[in-house]
Design a protein that fits this description.
The structure is a single chain. The chain is an alpha+beta fold and about 130 residues long. The chain has one domain. It is built from 2 helices and 5 strands, in the order αβββββα. A 5-stranded antiparallel beta sheet has the order 1-2-3-4-5.
Length: about 130
């Protein structure tokens, strides 16, 4: 998987065009996760919500048992990605957050390992 430029540490989210690019890239990555996990369109939701502590948009892929979140990183730029278990699509608290190394998505093995982890958490066999 090719990592979008807006996810890299040197990128800045200053200004409206940069935020729109980040939004597009985050939603595209989440849709790719859903597609590669063989989820049907009614089995997942992609949405954005504001983080309570900071005024930052968080983009999330949510199934009935998995929540994957992408948000801008504080400080040096780039993004933070995490996943956790949940009970239903309304559950945003869920289990413990597990951080994802975004740079590992750039390798075939790293991406395959992450998808297999998502499948296990989501309760999917394929």
């Amino acid at each position: 998987m090719k990592i979008p430029k807006s996810f890299l540490p040197h990128s800045s989210l200053e200004g409206r065009p940069a935020c729109q690019t980040f939004r597009r890239d985050a939603c595209r990555v989440l849709r790719r996760f859903a597609c590669d996990m063989a989820l049907r369109s009614r089995e997942f939701t992609i949405r954005s919500h504001s983080h309570r502590v900071r005024a930052v948009d968080v983009f999330a892929l949510q199934t009935d048992s998995l929540l994957v979140e992408i948000q801008p990183s504080a400080g040096a730029g780039g993004v933070q990605m995490s996943y956790r278990t949940c009970q239903g699509r309304g559950d945003r608290a869920g289990g413990r957050c597990n951080a994802v190394n975004v740079q590992s998505l750039g390798t075939d093995q790293g991406y395959a390992n992450l998808l297999s982890t998502f499948r296990v958490v989501a309760g999917r066999r394929r």
